[in-house]
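Lay summary. Proteins are chains of building blocks that fold into shapes, and those shapes determine what they do. In this project we predict the shape from the chain. Here is one chain we studied, written as its sequence of building blocks.
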Amino acid sequence: MSAVDARLAELGLTLPAVVPPLAAYQPAVQSGVYVYTSGQLPMVDGKLPVTGKVGGEVTAEEAKELARTCALNALAAVKSVTGDLDRIARVVKVVGFVASASDFTGQPGVINGASELLAEVLGDKGVHARSAVGVAVLPLDSPVEVEIQVELTQA
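And here is the predicted shape, written in a compact code that computers can read:
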């Protein structure tokens, strides 16, 4: 068992199967020592557990948990191209999108769910630069979407 897999188990987390693409793209691609994930929705067993706007039908607390799920899905996408999450040298960047009610301004707190999960799982390697953006709507009416970029150790 890899160190990252052991840490996931210690946290009571299971890396999900990679979410199949909803359109014409790959869940993740590797270019040199970097892996870029596509935007990951908070899919659980092929379905969104909640839909709607944050600050409307979805609370900020619910959305923060959904962002954690997005980050787990992103790690699964990274593993699908690297074979081993122990190859992650560091998470370079996280971009989070929050489908927001017109008066909702707590996007950074929502995307903290993804950032905190990456730090819990990867330690210092999970600390990253980040953007948290409010948007009008996301695919399938998802409340959140997260993409990550990671640097790999030299093979």
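What the prediction tells us: The mean pLDDT is 96.
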